[in-house]
# Entry
Amino acid sequence: MSVDVLLLNLTRFGDLLQSQPLIQDLRDSGHRVGLVCLDNFAAALPLLRHVDAAWPLPGAKLMAALDQDWRAATARLLDMVRRIRREAAPRHVVNLTPTLPARLLSKLLAPAPEAVLGFGLDPEGFGVNRGVWASFLSGATLRRLNAPFNLVDMFRMVGAPLCAPGIAGRPGRFRLRTPPDAAVAHARALLARPENLSPAAHPKGFVALQLGASEARRQWPVAHFAALGERLWREAGICPVLLGAPSERPLAREYATYSARSQTPFVNAVGRTDIPQLAALLRQTRLLVTNDTGTMHLAAGLGLPCLAFFLATAQPWDTGPYLPGCCCLEPAMPCHPCPFRQTCPRGHACLTRISPASAGDLILARLEGDGWQAGLSRELCHEARVWLTESDEQGFARVRSLSGHDAEDRSLWLSQQRLFWRHILDDLSDDGAGRAAEAADDRKQAGDQTHVPPCSPDFRRQVTPVLAQAARLLDMLAEQGRLAGKSARAGRLFLLNCDRLQTLLNACPPLASLACFWRELQQERGDRLDALLRFIGLLAGHLERWAAQMADSDDN
# Structure
């Protein structure tokens, strides 16, 4: 039962599934892979490929036990950790979960502190990120203008130092296992009993509808789903299949009320499937219509295309389906995506921005074989930013605009960050020159398609001076750092300018991910001045080039 690499993913259902491409990379590099996950998602384990052993943790039960008797619960947890470490005997631990409990768990399971990749703890118990991609990941996903990479690719890059040469440069392979026969039989039994279906009617196929989401503010209205389902049945003979957890049964009852009025058939599978049965049900359908959910990622791993709504805080750049050919819709509103932990001042107007008529045009065009583009209309492009998922020249997932919204500052800035962060992170990786040379070869073979149109003049005036000043501060830090051991004054100036750089970047929202990265870089490398100075020199060069390119755009 021992493994080479023990992977920790103690987050949500969708995030667990999105570990599959990293597991595939590790397997293709010759590793035996173990997985630690939460027990409420353990039913997904049979769908994951190349997991040689798994250890589900009782997260909710443990928290309840801690409330009752924390000493006894802690003792049981430590016994469990000792058992996992004894059985797994890993040489490396890759922790993809940035929470403090997961960091502590990685420390307890690893044979040595340096054996942890991703999110760990330093000897004093403070959080530390092992690897530059982990440092980037910890900040980018919390800042909506600064998350240009799909989460799957960021997971892959966190574990890339353990992978064979060339593995990280290929497109990620997201392919889940086929559900078992018993799950398939259950799915077929559900599909055989649509509600509201007249004896003379026969469905010409099924489309799955995932009504719920992690938050109500991220849910397309049930009335819109019902109007869409009615049209699919009326115009194409396609029967909707409702999906969801038991807690989402009220949404299914609301849908049933609308369908009873129009006498539209539907299959109600909400709360009637486990995870393998849900997978089997998805495989019986032609398409999934969904909010940003774990079901969306399950469909992607099964090769099922989807039309996905990204509302409120959700956006497809970082959490979109990891499958080429999916269509993602965002409300075409200046406030979208909204920041985390802020109250909406517009009454969640984004929820109703995208009409069921526009969504129906897209779906019918796709089902008829003409492609998503054939369903575009002027009304839809006014309502929504329409994105198509695909792979870029270096094998990373990306989204391409079908509606002309790629010329907005937000889209252009995210595209520019994809380019520059790949250069920066490849150059600063712990395997340094080797990874940078490999990445440069990949870009050369792909034609190095690095041109991205400039952002608006107002946006460039906001960002370019900050980048240029940050590069100058980094140059000063490099010089002061070299003198820090010889001069107390140089040491004081070094620390002062570290704080000045942090303050400068914090004050520029488009550079929030760079601000987080600089803070994490100091914390991770602060006890190794030579390593920190090397990174400072490399980062200064990249920021100088970035600022120069933006300034050249102003001149032209």
In short: Confidence is low (pLDDT under 50) at residues 432-437, 443-449. The longest strand covers residues 384-391.
